[in-house]
Amino acid sequence: MHPRRSAQEVLLCDLCETVPLQSHCELCNINLCGNCAVKHLSDSSKRHNVVPFLHRKSTPNYPKCPDHADKHCEIYCEKCGVPVCSTCALFGKHKGHDVSDILEKFSAKTESLQKDLIELETRIYPRYKEMASNVETEKAELETKYGKLTTDADEQGEILHREITAIVNRQKSAIAEMKTKHLDALNKNTEEITQKMAELKQIMSDLKSILKSNDVSLTSSYKSRNSQFRTLPPKVRVTLPSFSPQKINKDQLNEMFGSLSPFSINTEHGDTMKSAEAVSSPPVKPLLDEPRVTATIDTGYRPYSVSCLSEDQVWTCGNNDTMKLLNLQSELLTSIQTKSGRRPEDIAVTRNGDLVYTDYGDKTINLIKNKQIQTVITLQGWIPFRQGWRPRYVCCTVDNDLLVTMVSDDRKQSKVVRYSGSTEKQSIQFDDQGRPLYSSDNNYKYISENKNLDICVADWGASAVVVVNQSGKLRFRYTGHPSNTEQSFSPVGITTDSQSHILTADYYNDRIHILDQDGQFLRYIHCDLDRPLGLCVDIRDNLFVAECLTAKVKKIQYL
């Protein structure tokens, strides 16, 4: 039996060899009992790292020296950057070089490898996996999407065929009606002529009888009617209609039929992920036990939306055509009227500090720069047989794109569209099973982008906050706290903060719901709110709440 093992295989201290071990020095690679560990640590001539034996790392596998077969490389040459044996370090080619404890290097390198492994497993590989999944999903959806385009083209062709057939039938009916009238006129003329001919035949027969009779009396009493018949019956003249076919303009026909948007395949440079060390996580800001109102702004009208320009200046829009820039003292700094004279549907401040507003009535998205209104996006007006869309609510993303919720002209469909400038980059409408992500009505659908790039929509019609990821895939739906026993959840305004919290206004319950980035309920904000509607946060995570009925905007500290 090994002298340091008992019958029960008790492991003993490497130094005293009598007391069961308790600790392990990772740098010296020896096992220690409690007393020996104290003595070992008192040796200040070298570094030690004593840990509980069960927490020790596995013993490293030292490489063999290529020059000395009986030696292991237990020293690290700093100059050459390689492990060496003691003989090489003292007498060989590494003599005089700076050396260090290989275990220290091994420990540091192992830690670096562990960090790499953690980053690969938790951050990098999942992103590759998600990208591969997205590509496979996109491939799987090709048949459906292109099939829908083909179906749309077929349906449009059928509609045009029906319209052309209807036009041809109307022309044929008109021709048949003209023919009937023409025939009626000719028949009437024939009757008149036939009647005159019958009279003429009778006169000619009478004259023949008189001449044949040689009767002086009959001959003397005869009165001629020839002058009456010298004027012939009227002749019916009908101008036969002619058909003048319109020359078919193929360009106009193509335009009438509709067109496909340009097809392009672009390979974008892949995003470069920051290393785990470079990812700057925002400082953790715990929620206050009691949120408090720090300022109240009088807007002078019923505010529907609010968007922060700075910590003490906010843009508002409400129930008229004027957008107001106000400070915390309720002073009007700027006011701008919409180009159309209608009230703006929603507003958002861009990364450059410019104001964007949507106009539901004229289907436009407008940018206000230096007090000048530029229409950057105009959605198509009504097109025969094709569905149109109207913009509702808008937010600006971290990339300075615009996310816009839209409703169809017939108010039966809803979607989210991403614009870069005036170019549509993305349309989000259905989940992986082809079901609509958003309710089909024309109710509130405020929108915000979270710090993790999720797209969050407060869907009043669905009584839910609908959150999809950057690719448009559904992450979760939040339908209110389960303990709610009051009015049903009525989400309207929505915003997000530096902690990736999602905040949404619960209109009829006069409160704000705070959720984490995965849709878990955290807390309510009450603060005597009265019909909260629009929301935004400033760069310091102060919350601004537009109260629809009080004409006020409240600034609330909740972190």
Protein described:
By secondary structure, the protein is of the alpha+beta class. 26% of the residues lie in helices and 28% in strands. The protein is built from 6 helices and 30 strands. The strands form 8 sheets. Strands 7-30-29-28 form a 4-stranded antiparallel sheet, with no helix packed on it. A 4-stranded antiparallel sheet has the order 8-9-10-11, with no helix packed on it. Strands 12-13-14-15 form a 4-stranded antiparallel sheet, with no helix packed on it. Strand 16 and strand 17 form a beta hairpin. The longest helix is centred in the N-terminal third of the chain and has 112 residues. It is elongated, with a radius of gyration of 45 Å. The two termini are 66 Å apart. The N terminus is likely disordered.
Question: What's the gist of this structure?
Answer:
The protein has helices at about 35-40, 85-90, 100-215, 215-220, 225-230, 250-255; strands spanning about 25, 30, 50, 75, 80-85, 100, 290-300, 305-310, 315-320, 320-325, 330-335, 345-350, 355-360, 365-370, 370-380, 390-395, 400-410, 415-420, 425-430, 445-450, 455-460, 465-470, 475-480, 490-495, 500-505, 510-515, 520-525, 530-535, 545, 550-555. The chain has about 550 residues and is an alpha+beta fold.
